[in-house]
Records
---
Amino acid sequence: DGGITQSPKYLFRKEGQNVTLSCEQNLNHDAMYWYRQDPGQGLRLIYYSQIVNDFQKGDIAEGYSVSREKKESFPLTVTSAQKNPTAFYLCASSINPHRAEAFFGQGTRLTVV
Amino acid sequence: SQQGEEDPQALSIQEGENATMNCSYKTSINNLQWYRQNSGRGLVHLILIRSNEREKHSGRLRVTLDTSKKSSSLLITASRAADTASYFCATDAGLTGGGNKLTFGTGTQLKVEL
């Protein structure tokens, strides 16, 4: 089945640790995105990538890093510099450049303990 | 920054009734999309309306777009309990060099009661 897979579903992090969230898609999409969702709020864009080996900062990139070494994969690292990392993280992909519909993974809930 | 703002924030209706949600945005757009999110899950694309379209239908969904007022509405007719979810509008202003950047609103929580 084609789709976009995020793992793990739940992640716990101690303060000061870096953690990496996985996002894999087999839809052959060029563009991939990471969003953060806080309770009662909409989605805010962290990073996006339109093509392999290229990515751009979104609206709230501070404290996060990404890589795009393969078309299928767009991992997000939440670094210790992110002061409030507890949130629901959503990965999405879309065909580039003319199709705007985004396909989302099921999300990773990150909690700092 | 949030581009879209949905109204109302929460809506509770009886099964069989119609549900209307509104979205306002601030800048020029290429298209506007509506997504649905069940609690704790990812978003699912519902419908896309382009900036040169005024109305679009998909099953029980009807979307309107008024670019002069920078607003859109989503109507769900004959609602069902399974429609209970959060609904988000997302605006696409495009990116230099192609691709799209979706900016999401804060969402409307819809509850459909039996």
Note: Chain A touches chain B at residues 6, 30-31, 33, 35, 40-45, 48, 50, 58-59, 88, 90, 92, 94, 96-98, 100-107, 109 (CB under 8 Å).
---
Amino acid sequence: AQSVTQLDSHVSVSEGTPVLLRCNYSSSYSPSLFWYVQHPNKGLQLLLKYTSAATLVKGINGFEAEFKKSETSFHLTKPSAHMSDAAEYFCVVSYNFNKFYFGSGTKLNVKP
Amino acid sequence: GAVVSQHPSRVICKSGTSVKIECRSLDFQATTMFWYRQFPKQSLMLMATSNEGSKATYEQGVEKDKFLINHASLTLSTLTVTSAHPEDSSFYICSARVGPSNTGELFFGEGSRLTVL
């Protein structure tokens, strides 16, 4: 069975400070992993994806994530938060690209 | 990136009526589209997988007679909520897979907020 856990439902950071959004997965096989961002009342936008290539994946808007098989983690990071980063972030796992399983989401708040 | 367009973005309807939501891939052909439902402050729940030219595959617990999905062309999938009730009020999001099934990523529409009075 596959599942994905986002450990924090809410994260609050100050503008200019680092962002860490945590994601752990369980999968019987080598997964593909994604991070999506959703702004209020909008669809989802892909930030980055891991599909068995380099374990450190760089995405858009300065985000990156590292796939750690030993820890079954795929945490999302950004060195310096911007006000426009305030949104909800979803970690997604897929084994065969036929189904995509969403985490419960992490709402990022950025304080001025 | 690939563009997926959903229409309408917002719809309000009376209880008992049916509502159709369209999902179009604008600059690519999508043999597979996915329909998700998102309740307030919750994650996306997969409702069904829509395959062009064949019947949709519904997730457990999703009533296929209530949520009719049609994927008649490579660029259009529709979700019809039949005999809508207030509990069907939700944010519905479609997505389309771009690329081969072993490498494809999902692109999402902007979502459709349904309010049933």
Note: Chain B has a mean pLDDT of 89.
